[in-house]
Amino acid sequence: MTPVAMMLFAPFTAADYRLGAPLIVLTLFSLGILCLDLFLPARHKHYCSIPALLGLGVAAYGTWKIQQVLPASGALYAFFGTLVLDPMSVYFFYLFLAGAAVSVLISIRYLEVERESHGEFYALILFAVTGMMCMAAGADFVLIFIGLELMAITTYILAGFLRGNKRSNEAALKYLLLGAFSSAIFAYGLSLFYGLTGSTNLAEVGASLARRAATEPRNPIMLLALLTTMTGMLFKIAAAPFHMWAPDVYEGSPTSVTGFMSVSVKAAGWALILRVLLCGLYPLRVQYVPVLVFAAIMTLTTGNLAAITQTNTKRLLAYSSIAHVGYMLLGLIASDGVANRTGIRGILFYLLVYTFMNLGAFAVLTSLRRRNILGDDIDDIAGLVQRAPVEAILMLVFLLSLAGIPPFAGFYGKYFIFLSLIETGHYLLAGVAVLYSVVAAYYYLRVANAMFMRKPQGEGAPVTPPAMNLALWITAAATVLIGIFPNIFIQAANWAGTLIGPTGVAQIR
Amino acid sequence: MYNHILSIILFTPLVGAAVLMLIPAANKTLIRWTANAFALLGFVVSLPLVPWFWERKAEVGFKFLEGSPNNWIPTIGAGYYLGIDGISFLLIMLTTFLGFISILSSWTAIDDRVKEYYAWFLLLQTGMLGVFMALDFFLFFVFWEAMLVPMYLLIGIWGGPRRLYAAIKFFLYTLLGSVLMLLSVIFLYFFHHAQTGIYTFSIQELYHTAPLIPSVYGTTVATLLFFGFFLAFAIKVPMFPFHTWLPDAHVEAPTAGSVILAGVLLKMGTYGLIRFSLPFFPAVVQYPKVRLLMVTLSIIGIIYGGLVSLVQKDMKKLVAYSSVSHLGFCTLGIFALNGPGLSGSVLQQINHGISTGALFLIVGILYERRHTRDISEYGGISTVMPVYATISLIMFLSSMGLPLLNGFVGEFTILQAAYMANWKWAAWAVPGVVLAAAYLLWLYQRVFFGKVENPKNEKLTDLTPRELATFLPLIAIALWIGLYPKPFFEILEQPVAQIVEQVNHPKLYNAAAPPAAVQVAAKPANAQEAGR
């Protein structure tokens, strides 16, 4: 029986619900927020953020409870083996929850300035997180795909949340059309794999593909399935050559949503990639590594070179986030989860630091949004240090961290990628990667130049209500503290990366 | 205090920067006093190190050790591990001293965004001191890169008209070099693990395995790795042809920034060559081709820097190019690969810090009064500013290497060492000394002698007591090194002997005997040598 059929006929046990608690909690809270929204008067809609934060907190508590019962080396399975709770899932759960919480904090005032404060916003964020969790913890193509779609559809709406704004509408439409195409291509690849292997379970697909790849490594259907699946996944993390949507969507979306998309949605895409490529499709590693190498170099090149000429800060950060994906792809090329795990752990650590430093940068940009001032042009932050020294210094910290300058957290993200490349003998790729990190420093410094070395153009200081301040200080503290005391965070990433790989998933029944 | 002296020296400026943050930006006087107090404090807390170090100068290895190689990030194998030998001791004293002088010199020069200025400057101090103290490569790298940021901001915010360009150029050039160094050191890190089974960035441990690379991976890999490090340091020094960032950065930086840039930052490059390039790759630096390349680049730097200085119209640019020439002597001394060469090189680095630092201050004094550095704008200054002219003369003579002043001792020792290695090298370098005399004396003649022809120069005021106070200690040290350099050479004797030993007979890691045992066994023998 396929898992889907089993779900229809066999009842779930209490253990299933306990392990699925974070997802269930988030779903309930978002439904609750939608109900609450009905009764709140228009000027009090921002109170919906409180249950949203509460829901994220409860989900984090549920994740912590799961972490407590997690066996030392192994995973727990729920819902007939479709949901896998291993260190990686737990790690990603925390990451999504943290990213969503900071995004909610950033959004509260921003939405009011835009006069688009609605309760749905917070419900959608929670729904998106639920989808991401399915992607990170899915051990079955069906669940993974459902999670992907849940996340994608909610972010399409979030991207177009500023209904009166043309750019926001354009972003949403563009994202919807391209996203739907890529999802379809991804689903097509999955269906081909189902046809090839007769299963949607990652472990069974892996076992079946291993047999097939051994006998006919160039089976055209298999390669087609691989390519289409990878296209869908590379699209979701905005890797070149499937990155075209990112700059437009990032620029047009509400700034706080852009922040959320660039960290949490991207992290979810990465969870999906790690899960699928290292578990289910691991037997095809020989075939997909060249694709990854191509994508990584393309991504580094387009991301870094295109970012140089941007005059819009959001667009610049969009291209920079493409470039960061390039580095993470290098980690996946270096490490296969069997002989070497450094790169995978590097990716996990990178995503952690990236969540905080990039959200921090977007938080600063969001705080610049005032009536009549978009705040996303480089000119808008000219001389920021004289108008708002604290925001300027924090932005400098985030930019330097993004550029990978120690002692900030971002340095370690890149460091582990370089480490894995040298360890596995990819010297040429390592050389390319470090040279692009110099290019990257240039465009981050352009923003710093504007903030510190130009005369202020706008008037007045950015408004930072308590929630925004909290978000700024959380992200800044994380960026600095992870940079100065990285050990415990490296341990967490190492722990999260212990099981992921073809051997880890083999335990799935 | 004795056990934590290095940490105290390292973090005093940082505390100062933090304290500055608490003072309202409008209260400029209080900010200036606080910053100067902390700069002075930074110098004062480093003073006890002088007698303490003097007592232990003959001890083998690094002294005043603090922390351990693995206490900071055990998962990586990096530690907060500090320690100094004679070379780093002198450079640390130079840093705290010049740091104080430059902060003192900024009192009236900087009037815009004063609080930020002093905060970045103090942060820069901590970064530079960390570079000279770190015994863990990871820690070293963190300081090496982190110190770029304040310097970049100092040039970019308080610099001259082309400051944005100069600041970014400075940052990117240095970053380019250091990322390749990072890759190379990661390679050494894995190599160390392959040899010993231990992941560590401890410099002392890497000393035992890195020299094995040519025998395991062959000369090509070793040479590539050497150049990975070399590029980072050569850009920083800067050696010809990697010097193009230097004139821009120097000319655009505010006076105090130039003083620190020339006085301390450039020394990080030569320090890196001595601390890492030579001991990690003893075989590579002795390959005739590599060594010849290094020496040739140094000599080109000496001659080229001198020739370009000769034709400059801007005083600051002239001093900047003279740095290229002077640092050429330092690298020539390093790649002479003998005791006098290394000692002379380190001493010349100190000399250059004193003399060129002073020259930048001298240029800054005129610039503050006239807001131009064009040589043709001046003439006959000695009649309007006699005290200033006298002090300038002393520093000019010190910079060109006149006997009885500091420059002579360093240059002479380096030329002697170059002669010992290969007399042709010395012969090629000597014109650099002549050129130095030419461009400096000609500059002096054009600015200070003759009649005052430009009416704007008639009303110039002579040095204020504060300005005089910045120069007097510099002159005192220039005279001290010129007249009695023996203590400096004694401090350098032991570390230099150790590096020469490492270059010629590296203590390699032996799989049969763990490295710790090797060290312990080696100590008494070395101590005896030092005693003789």
Helix residue percentage of chain A: over 70%
Number of helical runs of chain B?
A: 24
Distance between the termini of chain B: 32 Å
Tell me the series of helices and strands of chain A, N- to C-terminal: HHHHEEHHHHHHHHHHHHHHHHHH
Q: What is the β-strand count of chain A?
A: 2
Number of self-contained structural domains of chain A = 1
Strand order of the largest sheet of chain A: 1-2
Class by helix and strand content of chain A? mainly alpha
H/E element sequence of chain B: HHHEEHHHHHHHHHHHHHHHHHHHHH
Please state the average pLDDT score of chain B. 88
Q: Determine the oligomeric state from the structure.
A: heterodimer
Shape of chain A: globular
Q: How many H/I helices of chain A? A: 22
Tally of extended strands of chain B? Answer: 2
Question: What's this, in brief?
Answer:
The complex is a heterodimer of chains A (509) and B (532). Chain A is mainly alpha-helical. Chain A contains 22 helices and two strands.
What does this structure look like?
The complex is a heterodimer of chains A (509) and B (532). Helix content of chain A is 75%, strand content 1%. Chain A has 509 residues and is mainly alpha-helical. In chain A, strand 1 and strand 2 form a beta hairpin. Chain A starts with a helix and ends with a helix. Chain B is mostly helical and 532 residues long. Chain B has one domain (102-114, 136-506). Chain B is built from 24 helices and 2 strands. A two-stranded antiparallel ribbon of chain B has the order 1-2. In chain B, helix 1 (5-21) packs antiparallel against helix 5 (114-133) and helix 11 runs antiparallel to helix 13 (255-280). Chain B is globular. Chain B starts with a helix and ends with a helix. The A-B interface holds A 385-386, 389, 396, 400, 405-407, 411, 415, 418-419, 422-423, 427, 430-431, 434-435, 437-438, 441-442, 445-446, 449, 452-453, 486-487, 490-491, 494 and B 25, 72-76, 113, 116, 141-142, 145-146, 148-149, 152-153, 156-157, 163-164, 167-168, 171-172, 175-176, 179-180, 182-183, 186-187, 190.
